[in-house]
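User: Sequence recovery, please. Input:
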């Protein structure tokens, strides 16, 4: 029979310290939350001008409000990490869905650089033209300006509703999973995160 003798008080203290590190996931959650926000922010396109976003990519930037709203919170000593955006439209940008006007008869959808980022009421010289037979069924018409020579420049489409496709971009990517594993390993080894 082999007997091991040790100072249990000393061993117990070491074990308690190790378990304390395991129980305290707050540094890991803080580091991982910051990593997610950084990863998601870098997914947004850079540069001026509006370009529609690709499927699976982040939403197109109009004024950077969504990108700048990305944040995270750690609760319950690191047991809970919430990351994302508090903006009302963040969820529909991620999951997709149908957008309908709340009080107006139609949604105004900007069609040109001049109208992008503005509302129809920002213009005082717009005329309504009903939709042609070729228009999608949800389009009621357009708002625009008559031009010299009888032309018409449409600035906004008027739609009964708009369906946004899902663009899941608030995701944990494989590189993030590797980062999390490294954080846990360093934390358990007492190296910090």
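Assistant: Recovered sequence (193 residues):
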């Amino acid at each position: 029979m082999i007997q091991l003798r040790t100072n249990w008080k000393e061993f117990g203290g070491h074990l308690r310290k190790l378990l304390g590190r395991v129980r305290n996931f707050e540094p890991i959650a803080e580091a991982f939350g910051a990593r997610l926000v950084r990863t998601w922010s870098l997914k947004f396109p850079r540069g001026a001008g509006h370009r529609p976003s690709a499927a699976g990519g982040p939403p197109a930037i109009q004024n950077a409000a969504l990108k700048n709203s990305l944040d995270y919170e750690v609760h319950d000593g690191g047991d809970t990490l919430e990351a994302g955006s508090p903006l009302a439209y963040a969820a529909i940008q991620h999951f997709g869905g149908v957008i309908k006007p709340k009080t107006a008869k139609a949604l105004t959808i900007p069609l040109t650089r001049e109208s992008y980022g503005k509302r129809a009421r920002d213009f005082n010289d717009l005329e309504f033209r009903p939709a042609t037979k070729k228009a999608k069924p949800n389009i009621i018409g357009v708002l625009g300006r008559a031009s010299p020579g009888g032309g018409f420049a449409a600035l906004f489409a008027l739609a009964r509703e708009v369906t946004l496709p899902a663009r899941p971009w608030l995701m944990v990517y494989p590189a993030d999973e590797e980062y999390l594993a490294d954080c846990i390993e360093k934390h358990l080894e007492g190296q910090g995160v």
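The mean pLDDT is 81.
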